[in-house]
Give the backbone structure.
Amino acid sequence: MFCKRLFMLLLPTLFLVGCGADSVNDAKNAATVYLNFQCDWQSVKQAFTPEQKEAWEDVSVEVASDFDDVLASLSDEMEQIRQTTKIPTCQWQFPFKEEGVLTDISVVDTLKFMAQSLLVNARKSFSLKNQSEGINDILSDFRLTRQVGKIESITAKLIQWEIEDSAIALLMFYHEDFDAELRNFLKNELSQLLPTTSAVETLAQEKEWFCYWIQKNFPPENLEEYPFLEDFIAAIDKHPYFSM
């Protein structure tokens, strides 16, 4: 019984992977722009070797020279991402209530790679003493994390925190190279970031669509075939983490 409940608790974090890009580039909604670029960015990531992927994500080391070609090939795409992070509206319209745990939010993994690419470029800029360029990429990265955090899924929230932790680690690694003017600029820009939901708020959002989906697809008359589901629904409905 416990294993079944644990499995169902983890279900919201398991989603199918695919390229659900919208063909229309709606510059008024950042979410649409990201979806349009999803497949292109995935193809770049899939070409990485495990060793390259590890080096790409390690913010404590300087960017290896063998990434120069990758960064150069992504220059236009990264500029598009920088501009997209400045779009004030980012509305994700995932059909969570209709598709539940089968909802395709593979774009979250792509957004993580986009954010990591900005951090890699920032690392390169910092290593070349181009502090302003590095700071601008860090700020774009933070704005991107807040847009990721708008997705009503704890999976997206965890990715948001992971990206922000990497950005903070990178700042801490190079902060002694920043002059007073640059520090003040960074402080002011960070203070203007969009507010983000808490873990409790995100869990409450996920509870709403997850329970709706379960009850819709497993009506009471069928629960006798899945007895653990009835206990599970009752348990999460009473859990304090989901109480707002």
Q: What stands out?
A: Confidence is low (pLDDT under 50) at residues 1-26.
